Amino acid sequence: MTPFMLAYAPSDESSGQESTYAAKIDSLLSLMTIEEKLGQLNLPAAGDITTGQASNSNFAEKIRNGEVGGLFNIKTAAKIREVQRIAVEESRLKIPLIFGMDVIHGYQTVFPIPLALSCSWDMELIERTARIAAIEASADGICWTFSPMVDIARDPRWGRIAEGAGEDPYLGSQIAKAMVKGYQGDDLTQNNTVMSCVKHLALYGAAEAGRDYNTTDMSRIRMFNEYMPPYKAAIDAGAGSVMTSFNEIDGIPASANKWLMTDVLRQQWGFDGFVVTDYTAINEMIDHGLGDLQQVSALALKAGVDMDMVGEGFLTTLKKSLEKGIISESDIDKACGRILEAKYQLGLFDDPYRYCDLQRAETEIFTQEHRNEAREIAAETFVLLKNENNLLPLEKKGTIALIGPLANNKVNMPGTWSVAARFDEAISLMDGMESVVGDQAEILYAKGSNVYQDSLLEARAAAFGKSTGRDPRPEAEIIAEAVEVAKKADVVVAVIGEASEMSGESSSRSDISIPETQRNLLKALLETGKPVVMVLFTGRPLAMTWEHENVPAILNVWFAGSEAGYAIADALFGEVNPSGKLTTTFPQNVGQVPIYYSHKNTGRPLPEGVEYQKFTTNYLDVTNEPLYPFGYGLSYTNFEYSDLNLSTTSINKNQKLTVSVQLSNTGKYDGAEVVQLYMRDLVASVTRPVKELIGFQKVELQAGESKTVSFTVSEEDLRFYNYDIEYVSEPGEFEIFVGGNSRDVLTGKFSLVE
After folding, report:
1. C-alpha to C-alpha distance for 741 and 737, rounded to whole angstroms
2. DSSP class of 738
3. Which residues are designated catalytic?
4. pLDDT for 714-725, tens place per residue?
């Protein structure tokens, strides 16, 4: 049998999938040279390969020589087909390539940033965004996405907080599972699915000082209780691949950490997919101080890393390490076998062009159906932070002043990590408001301010060509123009906050307040005496105490994707009633950071209801309370909680407890409320958080309607990792909390007995 026939041998339907793959992989490995095996471990970035020039690209010769296992940052079915052809027709063993991309919150149809999606608390909705992203990306030749990012993040200075699900491990775990299922579906060989890549293992979201790529150091008990659950949930959901993090764990960078990549990931969690590094992570271990490129590459392979993204340390040094006996051929075979297995799972050996159907690319990407869904989904992620005197929703009448640096800016609507977006077709807020109000109201526009007064800072906020449309005029002149527009209006919509690239990778901020020039604009608008609605664009929690105290209505819209303008207008004018709830705590000021709801108590807690008391844990200059707590979010209607009931006061390990509460919509609008269930383990062998989320339900109620909402609590919900990193529950007393956020709750108690 020739190598070509071996590579494309049809699967044996009568035997198990795993054994079929194992036999094929072993046969193929026996034919491969060391150089070809190392080639499978090499993942370069494609760069700018144009259609019709793939054969002459920088990678063509390496592909022909079997020195490339996959490519990323290349898109369109036509380009990928050209490159794949070189691999399966011009290389010796005809092994297909795997094609990856950062499909983070949609492909060309862009959904809200992941942090925003988490605020929907709607797992079906989140899964649907991943499903549509997989349909579109796979129609454009891509079969592997570097998503979901499941890093727990509790420091809003860290820019990549925008890319995850917030601060809570339970909610993060549910979202991780939904994303993996959405991407991978039930059968990876279907050409409208993509393999997911869970990132970044591990602890990347806990970077010291919120500075990207920085050191992380924490105890293992905290690691397993607070940061590891979403990674494990994604693995349990069947994620096909895992990406290493840039940071160190216990003094060893993740990409060389055998305890993390082998002992925990493979042996404890049973992961059988492949591990890829983040961009040049192996090379960066040189700066960490672990040795030269040959040394760190060998460390990474021995630790359990299978694929080297961009750095080419595996490709260029592992043969030398093999000859010196530092690594074994078995180490290389394990890694190579895992890459080959992923390609079998994706069906690439059966049909290397299964993702290169040009017809699909024309009919399944950026469709009107997908855009309609993006509009509806975006509106479910908005969080109403304040609504004094029911200023919102606005009426479609009179004159409305639309003012702010992002009020009429298409390219900033999709948000960070929207690499395939059609920016010129994104919907600005100006577009959306004009469409929704039609001829029922007049909309006047003024820019009002730049994002930053400092041009250098604003240039950093305009990365990747996402222009902020900087106005060169003096600040006073720009604001004065906006004030004149505001004076002509009945109400002012002030579009304030961050540009899209002020959050995301390498976008850490030490000052997380609204930029001064935008606050100056707000002050001037408020001084007109006109009612002001603040539409907040942000990729992170911001310290905005002044805004909360002075602006009557605040709607946080994050970055809402391709259809942002339509969705925001729908919410502003009451076509949609906001139901989003925060998944990250908003601090009063940056000095409170990190701040999160599930903190531990100290031995000197501040008494409840007391703002300051000497010799207790507090600040001199600010209370311990956040500006907005985890789980917080208002509605245009009012929800009331009453009649908390626990079905029993004690359970054993084989029994369940029913927690029920009466939820009533006492306002004038139909709406949805996220009912949240928390618990506290009052006495345990190790200190436990003051509250932990263990359940939630999104409940829709018509105006005037009431409903009993019930949760089931079992012994499994009470488990945690103890001092010996054993996953246990312990008999004792527990407190239950139910409410619309982590602060405002009804409480009850029960016991777990032997």
Report:
1. 10
2. E
3. 278
4. 999 999 999 999
Asked if 570 and 375 touch (Cβ cutoff 8 Å), the reply is yes
Q: What is the pLDDT of residues 86-135, one digit of tens each?
A: 999 999 999 999 999 999 999 999 999 999 999 999 999 999 999 999 99
| Cβ contact 285:299 at 8 Å | yes
For residue 45, list its beta bridge partners: 72
* Identity of the residue numbered 596: Y
CATH number of the domain to which 385 belongs: 3.40.50.1700
pLDDT bracket for residue 4 (50, 70, 90): very low
Instruction: Compute the distance between CA of residue 121 and CA of residue 174 in angstroms, rounded to an integer.
Output: 9
**Cβ count near 592 (within 10 Å):** 18
The CA distance from 447 to 5, in Å, is: 64
Residue that is last in its domain, among 533, 561, 592: 592
Please say which residue of 559, 575, 592 terminates a domain.
Answer: 592
Question: 686 and 569 in one domain?
Answer: no
Whether 576 and 645 map to the same domain: the answer is no
* Statement to judge: residues 563 and 707 lie in one domain: no
Could you tell me how far CA 160 lies from the centroid of its own chain?
Answer: 8
Tell me the pLDDT band of 58, cut-offs 50, 70 and 90: confident
pTM above 0.90, yes or no: yes
Q: Are 684 and 732 in contact (CB under 8 A)?
A: yes
CA 591 to chain centre: 25
Helix (H) or strand (E) holding 496: strand 491-497
Assign 630 a pLDDT band (cuts: 50, 70, 90): very high
Residue written as tokens 């925990």? 264
- 414 and 340 in a common domain: no
**Distance of CA 226 to CAs 151, 220, 246, 746, Å?**
10, 10, 19, 25
**Whole-angstrom Cα distance, residue 127 to residue 179?**
5
Residue 47 lies in a domain: yes
CA 183/CA 131 separation, integer angstroms: 5
How many whole angstroms separate alpha carbon 593 and alpha carbon 576? 33
Same domain, 428 and 531: yes
Task: Tell me phi and psi for residue 152, to 5 degrees.
Answer: -70, 135
Find out whether 676 and 740 touch, Cβ atoms under 8 Å: yes
3-state secondary structure of 612: coil
Give the E-state strand segments of 160-218 in sequence order.
195-201
- Please state, in angstroms and rounded to a whole number, the distance separating the CA atoms of residues 631 and 639: 14
Residue 287 belongs to some domain of the structure = no
Residue 404 DSSP symbol: S
559/659 same-domain check? no
**CB burial of residue 424 (10 Å; 0-12, 13-18, 19+):** exposed
Q: Where are the beta strands (DSSP E) in 574-624?
A: none
Q: Are residues 560 and 690 both part of a single domain?
A: no
Contact 624, 606 (CB under 8 A): yes
CATH code of the domain containing 683: 2.60.40.10
Pairing assessment for the beta strands 248-249 and 252-253 based on DSSP bridges? antiparallel
Q: For residue 339, what are the domain limits?
A: 1-8+16-95+328-353
Number of domains in the chain: 3
Is 384 part of any domain?
yes
Residue 364 covered by a domain: no
Task: Please indicate, yes or no, whether residues 338 and 487 belong to a single structural domain of this protein.
Answer: no
- At a CB cut-off of 8 Å and minimum separation 6, what does 493 contact? 394, 400, 401, 402, 403, 404, 407, 429, 433, 533, 535, 572
Q: Which regions of 549-606 does DSSP assign to beta strands (E)?
A: 553-556
| Residue for token pair 């079998």 | 344
For residue 68, what are the CA distances in angstroms to 82, 97, 317?
A: 15, 8, 15
